[in-house]
Amino acid sequence: RTLTKLGVPMDPYPRRVIEPIQFRNPFLWTAVIRGYAVQGKFAEAVSMYGCMRKEGITPVSFTFSALLKACGSVGDLNLGRQFHAQTFRLSGFCIVYVGNTMIDMYVKCDSIDCARKVFDEMPERDVI
After folding, report:
1. Which of 10, 16, 97, 112 is most exposed by smallest CB count within 10 Å?
2. Residue range 91-108: average pLDDT?
3. How far is residue 48's CA from residue 102's CA, in Å, rounded to a whole number?
4. What is the largest CA-CA distance in the chain?
């Protein structure tokens, strides 16, 4: 995250950093995915998610938050729906922050009905 804020180019830097680490955890992967997403490198973010899953690492809710934000940024509703489904399948319903990101993704993809449905089904809400 700090490297992203400083404007350090993310590609191929994260791969060089993450490859030598023997015990990779979901938080490390999420940081790399988020870094790509923040820089608008959607394909790279999704690619890193695929690498994470191939290694058998279960994502955390913040992983999906980064991916959903990327989907909203590029208006990819289909992939956003897939990540929405995976959020529920892998981690049950999400925390408020991820729910808000999910709503934001649906709104940016012009799917207001889906955004409203997510909001209505959130077990906990905050002010949007």
Report:
1. 16
2. 84
3. 20
4. 44
